[in-house]
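FW: tagging you since you asked about this chain on Friday. Here's the raw sequence from the shared folder, copied in full. Didn't touch anything.
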Amino acid sequence: MTYHCGTSARITTSRSGDARLEALRRHFEREAIDRAVHYGRTIRVAPYTLTMPGAERCADLEPIETYVGARGWLRTRSTFGDIGQPLPIARRSGFGAACKYAAQGSAEGIIAIGRPAITLDNDAYRDVLEFLNERAVFLTFLSQDS
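HL: got it, structure written out here
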């Protein structure tokens, strides 16, 4: 799947924008969880990391596994990631694969360590949230203050 969303040459961030986007992310997450619970489904999340394969990726996956288990969710067997300097989110094949996997019904959400693993550009981040929400998929973070 190719994830298409607008890209911005300039990174746009602001504290008030960050807070509004975090509220939107939480709203979309709650809607998706409520929908799954209404239909009697266990919440499944697909991990996404922005790390090198091997020990570094395992170091990210371990706390994700703990967090997911503590919430009573299931972590999917499939995990997704990208390596190196982060490309714009719309050009990351690992994130695109995670989106496709979840949108096909294999997971209700995608989980990452924190927002920096996705993007710090508010416009691109809003596009990601809306893209996922349109497919009944939520994005969540291990660190909820990200």
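FW: The chain is about 45% helix and 15% strand.
HL: agreed, and Strands lie at 44-50, 74-75, 80-82, 109-112, 138-141.
FW: great, closing this out.
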